[in-house]
Amino acid sequence: MGLFTAALLATTAQNGAKPTAIGPNVVIEAVERQIHGLLTLLPNFVLCSVFLLFVWGFAFGVKRFVLSGGHKSHMNPPLVRALARLSSIIVWVLGLFTAATIVVPSFNPGSMIAGLGISSIAIGFAFKDIFQNFLAGLLLLWSQPFHVGDEIKSGEFEGAVEDIDIRATLIRMYSGERAIVPNSAVYTNAIVVKTAFPARRGKIVIAVDDPRPAPEVRDLIAKIIEKIPGVLSEPAPSIAISNIKGSSMRFTAYLWSPQPTAAADRALTAVRDAFEAGKAEISAA
Predict the structure, then answer these.
(1) When you count CB atoms within 10 A of the terminal residue's CB, does the N or C end of the chain come out lower?
(2) Alpha-carbon distance 225 to 268, whole Å?
């Protein structure tokens, strides 16, 4: 006697019914019932397949419509892409639930969600970070505190923004590395947008050994810096004497430029060239 037959006989005995032998005919009848059930659902599977093709086309059309409308209205491109992806996901979720009811008419999405109970809470905790990053990404794309191409500093990451996705913000660091920062961290922490305004302030420290009076040397350095290409005349460069010891003087100069690092480099070079070799010691702060 096979294990399958013995199990059925034991179950029948436990239910109080008289055990009966299971022959080949019983097995054949059970297989036939299964095949009949599958054949009964076959039209539903075919209809479901056709419906899923329709959902795929509709989701693609909705995505294209959102992308086209966003570009025509000059919306933020990353925000348009996020809305297009979100709309496509919504269409697919609704479509899959509808497809399930086509295959199994007794399927009720509301009852399934309600029946999850504690499992739904566990799933919520598991996907909490994903939902948080998604919502933070939408808020960043909507409020636009910075744009693609801006130079920002978020925590320990500093560089140019490559892309703003619905999950993370991509930053190309000055070291040539790419930092993928979760949107929740970017949204909840302080951000320094270095390119928020057309010009930024640069700082250089100049140390010289010159017998001339400090105000005269300061005016000379100011005239040199004002002629540097890229240094703005408004706001004008400002130079302060920070230390004097005999003929050794130290000045702190502030200049404004769209590219303060490059302008500071040119200013340091120009000031060094203006003094005689060996009589100027110049360093950057």
Answers:
(1) N
(2) 9
